[in-house]
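Task: complex structure prediction.
Instruction: return structure tokens for all chains below.
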Amino acid sequence: MTEDKFWDRLRSDAAQLRYTPHDDVLWTRLTAGIRDRMHSEASVAQMLARWFRPIMASFAMLALVAALSVTWIERHEAASSVETIASNSVEITLDGDTYSLAE
Amino acid sequence: MFALKSEVDRTPTETDRIEQRAIAAVKSGDAASYDYLVSKYMKRVVSIAWGIVRNAHDAEDLAQEAFVKAFQTIERFKSGEPFGPWIYRIVTNLSLDVVKHRQRFRHEELQESLPATRGDRADLPAVVNELARRIDEAIEALPEMQRIVARLYLVEHFEHSEIAAMTSLSEGTVRSHLSLARAKLRERLADLYEGRHD
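Output:
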């Protein structure tokens, strides 16, 4: 018997090793089990979604407000520091004499 | 609810269309339509799991888990694709996880304190003749991945590409496992097949 023929023959004979219990109660039980698990696990997921979505939305809102506040403060501080520098005169002391750049 | 029809008087195309309608219905929130997919694929899914884990209770539990997981992630399932390869891949991965867990457990525990987890032939009503028993024993004696790949090819009649998709192995690796398995099986079953000229 050639290698290919052996392999084909073995494949044909091995098909009877499939696990197929002829027990209708088993299949009904398994299907019912899947339905139960689908509903129980779906309700847990729904409950989590019901709680987590508002919490996540609140956190997102807080993060947005914080980001906007930080941006506004930084811009405000930058503007005021430019004004502060501009209003202060810069003095340079050289060889005992002091020169002011504002003048 | 999605209407269930008898499998007998359907052409394959019609079956495919009904399957696609069932998937679309499940995606749109009609969980009852999932019964069609469960009833269509349940037996094959249990058989695949059993072939890998070789324990009836574990196989049934894995089949249930696979269907629940597929249901929960049905949004990710591409419309128009057949449901079979997807559910087969899920159950194969879950079963392989159980096998890996057992292997890790075996390393940690003393061998003699463990109950037998393979060779659960008492659950296999099909092994009623000597030929089937010998083939089953020969496949079970193969190294783990060769055994799983050989079982999917020889017993479940999946093609190389399908096995590759189910096990996340490359097609080349699947062919290599099968080639090694074939040599060993031919040697072990020589007395059964060498004399046959049909």
